[in-house]
Amino acid sequence: MKRDLQTEPRDSRQGVVAALVYVFERVMPDPFVLSICLTFFVAVLALLIAPHGNLPTLLSSWYEGTFGILGFALQMILILATGYAIAEAPVIQRVLRALAAKAQTPARAALLVFPVVAIAAWLNWGLGLIVGALLSREIAKRVNVDFAWLVAGSYSAWSICNSGLSSSIALSQASHGNALNLVEKATGHVIPLSETVFAPFVFIPTVLVVVVMTFVFIRMHPKPEHVAPFAQAAEAEANDAGVSDDPHARVGNGTPSFASRLEQSMLGTLLLIVLGAGYLAMEWSEKGFDLDINTTILIFLLIGLALQRTPIAYANAIRRASRQTGSMLLQYPVYGGIMGVMKGTGLASMIAKAFVTIATPLSLPLWSYLSSLIITLLVPSAGGHWAVQGPFVLPAALSLHASVPRTAMGVAMAENVSNMLQPFWAVPIVAIAGIRIQRVMGYTAVTFAVSLVIYAAALWLVP
């Protein structure tokens, strides 16, 4: 029987969230289609108002951006795939199941998911994405919880990653000789993590977002009659790997073949671990401890190999992970093209300069943050974003004698916020979880609104 929405009592908070979910489901297309729409929007805007908005510049910039991002795209996909292989290892799965068993109600699920995922994301954004998706699945199998709400909570907890140890902007400014270390190129100095990631104006709002959104999500959980639980069919589909870890699968008489024995031997795993660990020990002993994208991938590779133990087990885990990265393979080149158009035609510099021209030494970090909110929606990659916006906000900070770390992290903190409306990074987590992205984004729109205020207030008020 159809409910009378005019007479049925409804919690106002849940009514707002339900309306947001409805809007996103009806209006938001598939993320790949959305990226095409954004390409069209940026191209038209560049032709109309950008300083170098002519057709030849637009086309060449689009081409260079599309193919220039491929190396970085592979790095990001490897972070996700190697992180997935770690999270799927039997020992990690046992830990996730043990954690999920403690979540017996929606409120307890939120109290568990937010700190666990936030800590993982703070340590490494790839790990946070995967832990959030897999922990959500394990909880949803045991608790009568709305699955879209739970996945959205995981993604919201993940949002703080650009304020953590894997922040592309913070790491690049702390790394001597890094191509994106614009501060060092301009001043000859690096910015240590103590002035960015561990600074009170970054660390305090990061913790606040996690704590506040935990309780906001508890209040937003749908009433029992409106709960859409985890679909077991999606679980079966997601677990259908199409590969076998059985060493006898290659022969029909039950006798392991030479190939299968080689696949199950730990010698291959040990060889790669020795090579990788040896390189890291050599580099760190000569140059000191340092983390960048490539060493992060290598560390994830070594940990995953150790946890999976045999080469075939690790290869099968990566095969399963590859099913979650297909959408990223499609979207990265498209967003690379958008980034190329914005940079080549001068559109990004025009947006950044519009905010910088009205800034003061005190307000520049906040204006950097606000302009970053807009650019992130079109360039959803912190490293690529900094390459576009950094060359304009950094000279402004130096000329105005504003705080350089605060100005740089204003860009990074806005990435945290805008990612709650930009679906690019939500794609892998919803793919692993097995749910349509539109239902999730209705909830994360609330995270966008709350974190927007928290980070802005911290930039303005926290020393």
TrEMBL record:
Keywords assigned by UniProt, alphabetized: Membrane, Transmembrane, Transmembrane helix
Coiled-coil region(s): none
Source taxon at top rank: Bacteria
InterPro entries (UniProt xref): SCFA_transpt_AtoE
The keyword Repeat belongs to this UniProt entry's keyword annotation: no
Transmembrane segments: 32-50, 62-87, 107-135, 197-218, 266-285, 297-317, 329-352, 358-379, 442-462
PANTHER family: SHORT-CHAIN FATTY ACID TRANSPORTER-RELATED
Protein name (database record): Short-chain fatty acid transporter
Annotated gene: atoE_1
